[in-house]
Amino acid sequence: MKGANLQNADLDKANLAGANLQGANLQNADLGEANLAGANLQTANLIDADLGKANLQRANLQGASLQRADLEEANLTGANTTRANLQGADLDDAIGIRRTN
Fold first, then answer.
1. pTM for the predicted model, two decimal places
2. Which of 52, 44, 49, 48 is closest to 4 using CA atoms?
């Protein structure tokens, strides 16, 4: 699924553990409560995506675009967020992410 166009896709509660979604377009996608543990989302477009309560443990989000994404209550333990753009993202009650002010 590398580079796939999944814009506006309904992937609510989907099991995508370990999936290769590198460079995929997931803008406005519904990934609420999805299992993305260990998934490769490097450079993926997740702008305005719903990732509320998603499992992103050990996911590779390096360079991903997550502007305005809903990550409320998401589990990001061990996730690589190096150079990810989280501007305007909702991180309320997210687990495993360090915030800087």
1. 0.92
2. 44
